[in-house]
């Protein structure tokens, strides 16, 4: 492989990392509070707002049922209004974030719903405010589940980021299609696939390691 | 605002009712409940599953609101408090739970610190208070352990320390020993007793085990289908139970039940044919039954069959239960004689 190709691969890898990292951060900033709200706003719950809960739930479901590739195309006018262009890594971050947000929201919601209702009860009995219960009890107790959920989200976003390559994004997917497929360079294709596999493995391993670190639910043998 | 009265009840239920909206219309959980718990008392509430015990307890810290009547804690109307006033009352009422409800993500120290963090206590004060509490419940060695690494009894000790962190005046206990083995139950009950004595804390506890009431409660109430059917000093209720529900709970704890071969043949009305009258004899305090029964035979010429019996202790005071049978023709004489000598009697039925 030529030195030129190798530098292209390195650049594409950084672009992918940038797109995935930016959309994960933005998707979490938006999805985390949304997920917390969805998990605590049904009738009789902490932030009881059943109507708002239902409306937001419908929107989240709708967003999640649109195939990603259609989402990318459908929101091109919105993307252009937001970042001034519909191609390139910055433009790709818009649909990636829009796909990540409802996904992360549902993962956070599920993790929080798994927290034992008895803990909410205990915190209420202590005189905690709803916000204190969310911060000190729900988010902390759900942290192992949320960590695994975010890991899953990052892995999915790596896949999506390769897809935006097909519609004018940049990164590894774009490189794979332009060189590997259109110019028929199987070694480029193979390298792209290997890099993606390594990335996914790394993310998965780190995610599971962090989740295990923050998970105190099982007894450990502490060696003293 | 009225100033907090310095005397008066710690907890007061006044004509309290509670109905839940169920799938098939309203479910009445409590009806016209009135009960007063004095400061420093340990009041045990006993009842069958679904009787309304938890609902009653949860009204004391406003986790549940009465649909009628009032619940007052240290002079505050809990049922009508909301927002920060309600949260303030809750800080004065600690609560412990059957399944402990500890945060898995926090150590023993962190769990006990939680109510103080919620109350906004500065962290150096939290450290001192929590370390004191850890010593009080005897968990110094477990200070930095997580709940998953503790036994059930240790978890409940954390629960108790956590409930005491904000120095409450009242402690609520919802079946706090039901998930523990008998031995651990004893140590936890002893700890609660110590706390009641040392801190003058009022304790309201619910249970379905009469033994728990016997071992710790100074007062008790029996709740059946949402109504209080009996209430009073524990000793009095044990010695003179009035309601059938109370009696059936008591027979569970005293172990004084009729042998099966008699219970199966028991008739409620006295048959015309020759028969035996089955009598429960209860003696309180220092009355000894043995000479009584011997004298019944010697002085009155009435033969006595002893069917079952046991002696119990409530606090320092003993009381006993004896099931006997005598010739039904002489039943009235026998009971009159025993009553005259300070024993309590109750006809359970007749066997041919
Ligand atoms: N949130 C609720 N919604 C509807 N019904 C309820 C609710 N909480 C309790 N009930 C009903 O009220 C009644 C009393 O319940 P409660 O939990 O107080 O009983 P309990 O005496 O504590 O029983 P257990 O010993 O099983 O804990 C039951 O019939 C129960 O089904
Ligand atoms: Mg209950």
Automatic annotation (TrEMBL), chain A:
It is a multi-pass membrane protein. One of its GO terms (cellular component) is plasma membrane. InterPro entries: AA_ABC_Transporter_Permease, MetI-like, MetI-like_sf. Its main location: membrane. The chain crosses the membrane at residues 17-39, 51-76, 82-105, 142-168, 188-212. It is found in: Cell membrane. PROSITE patterns: ABC_TM1. It comes from the Bacteria. Belongs to the binding-protein-dependent transport system permease family. CysTW subfamily. This is D-methionine transport system permease protein. It comes from Paracoccus homiensis.
TrEMBL record, chain B:
It comes from Paracoccus homiensis. Belongs to the ABC transporter superfamily. InterPro entries: AAA+_ATPase (IPR003593), ABC_transporter-like_ATP-bd (IPR003439), ABC_transporter-like_CS (IPR017871), ACT-like_dom_sf (IPR045865), MetN_ABC (IPR041701), MetN_ABC_transporter-like (IPR050086), NIL_domain (IPR018449), P-loop_NTPase (IPR027417). The keyword Cell membrane applies. Signal peptide: none annotated. Gene3D superfamilies: 3.30.70.260, P-loop containing nucleotide triphosphate hydrolases (3.40.50.300). Part of the ABC transporter FtsEX involved in cellular division. Important for assembly or stability of the septal ring. The keyword ATP-binding applies. GO terms for molecular function: ATP binding; ATP hydrolysis activity. Residues 11-250 form the ABC transporter domain. GO terms for biological process: amino acid transport. Pfam families: ABC_tran, NIL. This is Cell division ATP-binding protein FtsE.
């Amino acid at each position: 492989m030529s030195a030129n190709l190798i530098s292209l691969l390195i650049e594409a890898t950084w672009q992918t990392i940038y797109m995935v990292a930016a959309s994960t951060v933005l998707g979490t900033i938006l999805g985390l509070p949304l997920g917390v709200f969805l998990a605590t706003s049904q009738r009789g719950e902490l932030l009881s707002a059943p109507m708002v809960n239902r409306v937001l739930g419908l929107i989240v479901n709708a967003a999640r049922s649109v195939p990603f590739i259609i989402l990318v195309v459908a929101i091109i006018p919105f993307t252009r209004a937001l970042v001034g262009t519909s191609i390139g890594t910055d433009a790709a971050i818009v649909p990636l974030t829009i796909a990540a947000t409802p996904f992360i929201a549902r993962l956070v919601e599920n993790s929080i719903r798994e927290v034992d209702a008895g803990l909410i009860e205990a915190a209420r009995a202590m005189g905690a405010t709803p916000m204190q219960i969310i911060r000190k009890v729900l988010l902390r107790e759900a942290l192992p589940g949320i960590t695994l959920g975010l890991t899953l989200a990052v892995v999915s976003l790596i896949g999506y980021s390769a897809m935006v390559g097909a519609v004018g994004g940049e990164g590894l997917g774009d490189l794979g299609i332009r060189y590997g497929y259109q110019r028929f360079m199987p070694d480029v294709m193979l390298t792209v696939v290997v890099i993606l596999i390594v990335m996914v493995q790394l993310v998965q391993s780190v995610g599971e390691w962090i989740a295990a670190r923050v998970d105190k639910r099982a007894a450990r043998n502490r060696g003293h | 605002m009225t100033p907090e009265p310095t005397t008066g009840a710690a907890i007061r239920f006044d004509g309290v009712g509670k109905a839940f909206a169920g799938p098939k219309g309203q479910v009445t959980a409590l009806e016209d409940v009135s009960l007063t718990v004095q400061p420093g008392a340990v009041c045990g509430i006993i009842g069958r599953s679904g009787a309304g015990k938890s609902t009653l307890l949860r009204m004391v810290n406003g986790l549940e609101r009465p649909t009628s009547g009032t619940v007052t804690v240290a002079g505050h109307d809990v049922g009508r408090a909301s927002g920060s006033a309600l949260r303030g009352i809750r800080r004065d009422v600690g609560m412990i739970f059957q399944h402990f409800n500890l945060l898995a993500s926090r150590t023993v120290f962190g769990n006990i610190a939680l109510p103080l963090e919620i109350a906004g206590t500065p962290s150096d004060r939290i450290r001192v208070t929590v370390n004191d509490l850890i010593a009080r419940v005897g968990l110094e060695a477990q200070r930095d352990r997580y709940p998953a690494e503790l036994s059930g009894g240790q978890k409940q000790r954390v629960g108790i320390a956590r409930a005491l962190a904000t120095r409450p005046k009242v402690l609520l206990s919802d079946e706090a020993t039901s998930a523990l083995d008998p031995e651990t139950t004893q140590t936890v009950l002893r700890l609660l007793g110590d706390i009641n004595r040392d801190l003058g804390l009022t304790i309201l506890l619910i249970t379905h085990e009469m033994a728990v009431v016997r071992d710790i409660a100074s007062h008790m109430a029996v709740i059946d289908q949402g109504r209080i059917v009996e209430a009073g000093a524990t000793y009095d209720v044990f010695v003179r139970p009035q309601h059938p529900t109370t009696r059936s709970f008591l027979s569970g704890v005293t172990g004084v039940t009729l042998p099966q071969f008699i219970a199966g043949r028991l008739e409620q009305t006295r048959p015309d044919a020759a028969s035996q009258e089955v009598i429960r004899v209860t003696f309180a305090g220092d009355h000894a039954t043995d000479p009584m029964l011997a004298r019944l035979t010697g002085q009155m010429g009435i033969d006595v069959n002893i069917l079952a019996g046991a002696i119990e202790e409530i606090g320092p005071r003993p009381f006993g239960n004896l099931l006997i049978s005598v010739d039904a023709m002489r039943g009235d004489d026998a009971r009159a004689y025993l009553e005259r000598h300070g024993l309590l009697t109750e006809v359970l039925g007749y066997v041919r």
